[in-house]
Design a protein that fits this description.
With 243 residues, the chain is α+β, with helices and mostly antiparallel strands. The chain has 8 helices and 12 strands.
Amino acid sequence: MKVPKYYLVKSDILRLIVDVPTGAALPTERELAELLDTSRTTVRQAIAELVVDGRLERTQGRGTFVAQPMQVRPLTSFSQDLAAEGWRPGSRVLDVDVVEADEDLAHHLHLTPGAPVHRVARLRTHAEEPIALEIAHLPDLLPYLAEELDSRGSLYRTLAEAYGIDLDAVEDIVETTPADPVTADLLGIQVGLPLLLVQRTAWDASGRPVEWTRSLFRGDRFRFVARQRLRDTDHPASSAERA
């Protein structure tokens, strides 16, 4: 099978940046084309794929740079995960309000359509850089939620400490979606860049849904890893961990 030219160029570029520090500028497309003896169109296609892969990042008007290593995201708490990896997690609350549940939200939270729910929109960051947009929906109308969340930062910590709500199980559905103009503007990325869409439902020990969250993670910053251990049962247990 013939290997596409851009794929060979992509491999060449990866070799060029293997020892290059994060944030270093890449040579221009013209310079790379001359260095690798190929066309600028091929170089441009290779770079575009490396941006999607999270190995390079483009800044409008400035150029192309070596990207930060990608964060491996297990299916647990955002703040704890990033802190454990040596990242500096942060959060900016965009909005905390009460909305009426539409049919989809009511289905996830086992409510009647039109029932009031808390909606919490947050921009998640690392070292002040936006990396995810999370919109959580909570079936319980919690007094002073904005203030309690502001003082603690973590939604799960707030639920446990301020309201006695402990999570017992979560389910995450992960897929990809392109960045729309509003999300792209909030995350500081190009429109159409692939995002990881994670829809999470969380339950307490009684099996009652206590959270449904829709999160959009930058595809050039995160990847999800899941591992299953096969047991002598009809339904293998599954888990997730960092690569």
